[in-house]
């Protein structure tokens, strides 16, 4: 395998820095830190270029917080300057890794994503079960606490299979080691642009094992969630043992205890949907979270701007499923909640 050499120069161009800045500010251009950066944009971009070129780049301090939707996650966010630097690096190194990834890896990749992953799985289930009339089973698996348990030594070694530019490797090592509140040697922060890429690089090791060692045809992965289809449940159980062993020994990770073999006719959970042979529905947790959001809006815990953004995002997710009536009911609930909120505020103002 040829490695990429002499790529530092491509990272350290004004054109790449400007492109990185524009990506980093997307949908955030009126935030205070972005406006502050903009005041001296040329100077700040020159500083970013110099720090990377001279090998003096030091990542800033993380802002650590939790999000609770769709599940509780710990997020570590870097200052805007560092996010520009990461975009500069990823702009150049991502294509190097991208061409080595398998087709059915869907997370954080151009023209991929959760909806494409869902479509691909749904189409394959339909082909196998409806058109060919086969009885299909599936491994539904995911990695337990994936991001926080990624082994730095394994990740660095894997990156060196693709890149041999020592100056760039030094910076990448620093970014990997600058892992916030995780203990030394493990974990990459959810929230870093580089973490999204590194997470795919790391599990590409598993992808290659499943495709080329186990010779699996119907395999789909979205970050640390994966699905394997087969007519033979015994074959899948034997395969799962090998995958579990590989994940432990080669990647120093563990599978989620809920990982197992299921009958596809009962639905296959993947990327927020439950996939059946000829239709898909949203998982029950999605409707519970919407009810919780509606209650938070009605009680004033969530303001209207945040509520509107959140509810439209959730409705967009639902509307990719076969759930027209559910979507219509939720829109009616939203309308009633907004009318009720306006009426309550009017009463309060009169009082």
Tally of strands: 9
Order of helices and strands: HHHHEEHHEHHHHEEHEEEEHHH
Low-confidence stretches: 343-351
Task: Give the proportion of residues in helices.
Answer: 55-70%
Residue-averaged pLDDT: 91
Q: For the largest sheet, list the strands in their spatial order.
A: 4-5-3-6
Cα-atom radius of gyration: 23 Å
Computed structural class: alpha+beta
Distance from N terminus to C terminus (CA atoms, Å) equals 75 Å
Largest sheet: 4 strands, antiparallel
Secondary structure tally, helices: 14
Beta content comes to: 5-15%
- The best one-word shape is globular
Structure description:
The chain has helices spanning 8-11, 14-24, 32-39, 41-54, 80-98, 114-131, 146-149, 152-159, 166-177, 193-213, 233-251, 284-298, 304-318, 324-350; strands at 63-67, 73-77, 137-142, 219-222, 225-230, 260-263, 268-270, 273-275, 280-282. With 351 residues, it is α+β, with helices and mostly antiparallel strands. 31% of the residues are buried. Helix content is 56%, strand content 11%. It is globular, with a radius of gyration of 23 Å. The chain has a four-stranded antiparallel sheet with strand order 4-5-3-6, sandwiched between helices. A three-stranded antiparallel sheet has the order 7-8-9. A two-stranded antiparallel sheet has the order 1-2. Helix 5 (80-98) runs parallel beside helix 10 (193-213) and helix 12 (284-298) runs parallel beside helix 14. Residues 343-351 have low confidence and may be disordered. It starts with 7 loop residues before the first helix and ends with a helix. It has 14 helices and nine strands.
